[in-house]
Design goal:
Blueprint lengths: L6 H8 L2 H11 L2 H8 L4 H4 L1 H23 L2 H17 L1 H6 L4 H26 L7 H9 L2 H34 L1 H7 L8 H11 L1 H35 L13 H10 L1 H22 L1 H9 L3 H25 L5 H21 L3 H14 L2 H10 L6 H10 L3 H13 L3 E2 L2 E2 H4 L2 H16 L8
Antiparallel strand pairs: 1-2
């Protein structure tokens, strides 16, 4: 899949994919964590995703223009610099008790991720025969879930489990401060609302609450400082490494570039499909914790274990699907997996108990192929417009910024049309899979791999 001239570059760039996987999936559980620690609604907590994926949207075309003028390597260096800066900003953010500094940190961090993805994806596509480009990108993307798994594990072990320890301390504190409220909130031991416990402590002893909150914010902060140090080391490696200064060739005209992209139906439909794919991915991975807690009474830390299982399935499925691309056109495989996702989401909505949760976990197997396959189909034969074409597909990550807050608004409702707000909210992922299935169907005979 890769020519000898690009082998070292391919290895180095592929190592970037776990880095943004880590950032994505340590962040998804923070929606619930910030909601609890800062006493916010699910909608307010979901603004983490709005800031996080908003950075992708805001910086994508800036990154493309920069890469067009310089090189893929230069874009990667800028991306790593912003990534490390955003991660290190978690230190001052944790010193206050406000939410907005964290949102700024997330935004800067993901401006860096936008540079990285806008650079790395088309760079990988260019490293060999165009006939194997989709397979090559799928192979590189197969390492992304490994970073995601590490991010999920870090969130579970170093953040959520420690927040659960604070929850237990909060119960003990509330029992001493306000026995009546304690008895009311613990009447059903399987479904204790720990945010309500913290609110009750804040009402009777604000100083005790502030001490707990400061401890929790430090718990959230430390893993981001660690990944910032790792990214800084990777930045040094890229500064030293000699890589081909590759970028698309040909005369550059912004007007002509956008004109060609807008006339390319396969491309702009791919941007739309990518918007809905990222939306469904982030919703299913972010709100698996809410589903487990609200519908089944499972605590945050244990719920994150189910998220880790989902990501493990996603990772294995990515390698299997990459192999299947040797025999099945990307469009057909994309369509088939989207239909599988539709069926499983219906199970999440209508099947109660652990089976519904298992359906939600199973959705990850269907999602595994989608991002790089949509990406590869949309950019097939795009030539000199690769950087700006890639930027449009990275901007489509805005779906991960827009969709989760909409789903969170539904989750905040008690019931909608006879279903719990949490169950009903998964109609949004259902709609997303319909759009993806249509894109796969429309392109089922167009793209084939060698």
């Amino acid at each position: 899949m890769v020519t000898r001239d690009y082998l070292l570059s391919f290895v180095l760039v592929t190592l970037l994919f776990p880095l943004w996987g880590f950032a994505n999936d340590i962040t998804n559980p923070m929606v619930r964590a910030f909601s609890k620690v800062l006493l916010m609604s699910n909608f307010e907590g979901s603004l983490v995703q709005f800031a996080f994926y908003g950075g992708y949207f805001a910086m994508a075309f800036v990154a493309a223009y920069y890469i067009k003028k310089h090189s893929y390597k230069s874009g990667i260096v800028v991306g790593l610099s912003l990534y490390a800066t955003g991660a290190f900003l978690f230190f001052p953010s944790s010193l206050g008790h406000a939410f907005w500094p964290f949102l700024v940190s997330y935004f800067i961090l993901t401006c860096g991720l936008s540079f990285l993805e806008t650079s790395a994806n088309p760079y990988i596509l260019s490293m060999g025969d165009e006939a194997t480009a989709t397979r090559r990108l799928n192979f590189a993307q197969s390492f992304n879930p490994m970073g995601s798994l590490l991010g999920m594990f870090t969130a579970q072990q170093l953040i959520l489990s420690r927040l659960n320890t604070t929850d237990n301390l909060a119960l003990t504190k509330l029992e001493a401060l306000d026995p009546a409220t304690y008895a009311s909130l613990t009447a059903n031991p399987d479904k204790i609302d720990f945010k309500a416990v913290r609110e009750a402590i804040y009402a009777v002893d604000p100083a005790a609450f502030e001490a707990m909150r400061q401890t929790d914010l430090i718990t959230i902060r430390n893993p981001y400082l660690a990944i910032g140090a790792v990214v800084l080391l990777v930045l040094i490696i890229f500064l030293i490494a000699k890589m081909p200064k590759k970028q698309s060739e040909g005369a550059f005209s912004l007007k002509e570039t956008f004109g060609r992209l807008l006339r390319n139906k396969r491309y702009y439909e791919g941007v739309i499909a990518q918007f809905f794919y990222v939306g469904v991915q982030i919703m299913c991975w972010t709100f698996i914790i809410h589903y487990a807690e609200i519908e089944l009474g499972i605590d945050n830390s244990t719920a994150q274990l189910y998220n880790i299982v989902a990501m493990s399935i996603f990772c294995c499925s990515r390698f299997v699907c990459t192999y299947l691309l040797k025999y099945i056109s990307p469009g057909k495989l994309l369509m088939s997996l989207a239909f599988g996702g539709l069926i499983l989401v219906l199970g999440v909505i209508f099947i109660h108990g652990m089976t519904g949760l298992y359906c939600l976990i199973g959705v990850s197997a269907c999602m595994s192929l989608m991002f790089p396959t949509i990406y590869g189909i949309a950019l097939e034969g795009i030539g000199q417009d690769a950087e700006f074409g890639a930027a449009g597909l990275i901007m489509a990550i805005l779906g991960g910024s827009v969709m989760p807050p909409l789903q969170a608004l539904m989750i905040d409702q008690q019931t909608i049309l006879g279903l719990s707000g949490c169950r009903f909210s998964f109609f949004l992922p259902f709609v997303c899979f319909v759009v993806i299935a249509l894109y796969g169907y429309r392109n089922r005979m167009i793209i084939r791999t060698a």
